[in-house]
Amino acid sequence: MYNFTKSLCCVFMLVLVFAGCKDDKEIEPKNALMHDGREFEISKGLLVHLGEYPEGGSGQVLFLSSEGVKIQESGGHIDSIYGVGHAIYFRLVSASANALDEGEYTFDNDFTIEVRTFFEPYVVFNSNFAAEDGEYYELYEGKLTVKKDGPNYILDVDCIERNGKHVTAHYKGPLTFYDEK
């Protein structure tokens, strides 16, 4: 009887140990812009090829926006942007004409047009894009980190706007490509 009780206690302890072990799943951040303690959803992204720079590299626009922001196309090109919502915009330099290079892009205040730099970035909140109103902030420093996961990009933004407040963003998803050169 003593051995049976001892064995039963060991089995019970093993059950408790294994029941307490859970898979540590990584929590995926939401697709969102953050500014001044506020969170704004973003749901889609565009990558627009503008042409090649004489210094080398490809000029591109990265535009991440909320669902309410619409793109009007004409002949496979962007005709206009309208709707109400939020967006973050970067002019950047990539080595590829039709994709973003993986790695870290840094703010280029001097317009050196080097690969993996960005310039003229801004963010807008609660904007009516047809009327060009809403909260508009130029970004003055920061970085954009780009990773690829199959057809999806994983983009993380950490910048500072003109009032010294942080603007961060996370986006995981595809980018719709337009060649506007």
Question: Would you write up a description of this structure?
Answer:
The chain is mainly beta. It has one domain (28-179). It is 10% helix and 58% strand. It is built from one helix and twelve strands. Strands 1, 2, 3, 4, 5, 6, 7, 8, 9, 10, 11 and 12 form a twelve-stranded mixed β-sheet that branches. β9 and β10 form a beta hairpin. The mean pLDDT is 88.
How many beta-strand segments? Answer: 12
SSE class: mainly beta
Question: Beta-strand level of the residues, as a percent range?
Answer: over 45%
Radius of gyration: 23 Å
Tally of separate helices: 1
Query: Major β-sheet, in short?
Result: 12 strands, mixed
- What is the percent of helical residues? 10-25%
Reading the helices and strands in chain order gives: HEEEEEEEEEEEE
- Spans of at least 5 consecutive residues whose pLDDT stays below 50 are none
- What does the average pLDDT come to? 88
Please tell me what the overall shape is: globular
Total discrete domains: 1
State the end-to-end CA separation. 85 Å
Q: What is this structure's SSE topology?
A:
Elements: H1 2-20, E1 32-35, E2 38-41, E3 44-52, E4 58-65, E5 69-74, E6 77-94, E7 103-107, E8 117-128, E9 133-149, E10 152-161, E11 166-173, E12 176-179
Parallel strand pairs: 3-12, 7-8
Antiparallel strand pairs: 1-2, 1-11, 3-4, 4-6, 5-6, 6-8, 7-9, 8-9, 9-10, 10-11
